[in-house]
Amino acid sequence: MTKTIYVLNGPNLNLLGQRQPEIYGHATLATVEENCRAACADGFDIRLLQSNHEGEIIDWIHEARHAACAIVINPAAYTHTSVAILDALNAFEGPVFEVHISNVHKREAFRHHSYVSLRADGVIAGLGIEGYEAAVRRVCSLLG
Ligand code: CA2
After folding, report:
1. Distance, CA 131 to ligand 1 centroid (Å)?
2. 32 CB near ligand 1 (under 6 Å)
3. pLDDT averaged per 10 residues, the chain (length 144)
4. Cys-Cys with 139: which of 70, 83, 99, 127 at CB 3.0–4.6 Å?
5. Which pLDDT value is given to residue 61?
């Protein structure tokens, strides 16, 4: 079995560390990647990807069906809008963890609903970028 964990990131997360540090912190996605790799148990690895395009994220979820043992996903704004990403995740058989850097429940009402949560095996919000590492650790303990 492949032991690659896909860590997928949605729109605008390429700006992590460059704007709105009061909400999203100072770390960049490169740091998220480094920390997730360090959080992997022996034999596991991560593939971190980011896109501003819904279809590209869906293509990566399809690819994950054969190339990944689990998906950690921060769908960003698509969390709250995308039935298409939910449908793609429903076609993936392994564990799925949804991560939000900020505590979406403390923010605007439109951020309180997540389509992806209908599929996610766990949801982490408000731990900053440490939420990604927590999700990777959970995957390794579930599948290790
Ligand atoms: O808290 C999260 O991780 C979110 O998924 C981030 C999304 C937001 O739409 C969700 O409601 C919650 C926004 C990502 C935007 O990322 C930026 C990062 C730095 C600067 C500007 C945007």
Report:
1. 13
2. no
3. 96 96 96 98 98 99 98 98 99 98 98 98 98 98 97
4. 70
5. 99
Per-residue model confidence (pLDDT) at position 119: 98
Task: Say how many C-beta atoms besides its own lie within 10 A of residue 78's C-beta.
Answer: 23
* Max Cα–Cα distance, the chain, nearest Å: 41
The DSSP 8-state label assigned to residue 56 in this structure reads H
Q: Which tokens is 72 given?
A: 């950690």
| Cα–Cα distance list, 80 to 99, 116, 123 (Å) | 13, 8, 14
Nearest 5°: the CA angle 127, 130, 136 is: 120
CB 19 less than 6 A from any atom of ligand 1? yes
Return phi, psi of residue 17, to 5°: 90, -10
- The pLDDT, as a whole number, for residue 132 is 98
Going by alpha carbons, the residue nearest to atom 9 of ligand 1 is 77
Q: What pLDDT is recorded for position 1?
A: 79
Q: Could you give the angle at the alpha carbon of 45 between the alpha carbons of 48 and 85, nearest 5°?
A: 40
- What's the rounded Cα separation, in Å, for the pair 143 and 132? 17
